[in-house]
Amino acid sequence: MGDHKDASRSAETPQRADAQRNRERILAVAVTELTRSADTPLSVIAKKACVGQGTFYRNFPSREALVMEIYRHEMQQVADSADQLLGRREPDRALREWMDRLARFSMTKAGLADAIRQATSSPDGPAKPGHDTLLQAADRLLRACEETGVIRPGVTSEDLILAIGRLWQLDPSSDWQPRAARLLDLVMDGLRVGAPGRKATDA
Q1: Rounded to whole angstroms, what are the CA distances from 18 to 13, 21, 86, 104, 125?
Q2: Is 154 strand, coil or helix?
Q3: pLDDT at residue 10 above 80?
Q4: Which of 68, 111, 121, 127 makes a 20 to 30 Å CA pair with 37?
Q5: HSE on the CB side for 114, CA within 13 Å?
Q6: Residues 6 or more apart whose Cβ sits within 8 Å of residue 129
């Protein structure tokens, strides 16, 4: 009996892994295709993701579901990267690299603006996901920087998002990376003004 259960679990594991890969492939293709055109047929996305219609619709039963999942997935990836960066970098470097990831998310969001508007335009359509996960991630990074004395004290996650709000006005079809980098360097320089310096316990 136990061997049968173990064999069933072993068989299910590759299936779950395949299903996850299919889902991630659909999302990756959908970002590209819907950024290019909000009206891209779902059948085109499925074909380019190399999945059948049944697989596609099991994951995303409608265009609205697909668009909202792209938005949520991309935002969650940025939020999750905060702790990953804090585990590998000094807090101020982690914060600066996280800002770069936030910039890429903002360009994805801008590129998908038409698709998002279409998905949320009807009265009974889905609401856009809130930004709480991003604010919480920013707060963890800011507190880590404050604790080591590398930024001025008292900066909130809302302050940071407002300070880099110009990112959302950049044209995703332009050469936006150098301008975003300059903007984020200026914000980082501003955060360092008035910093008390690295604490002795962290030296």
Answers
A1: 9, 5, 31, 27, 30
A2: coil
A3: no
A4: 127
A5: 11
A6: 68, 71, 72, 75
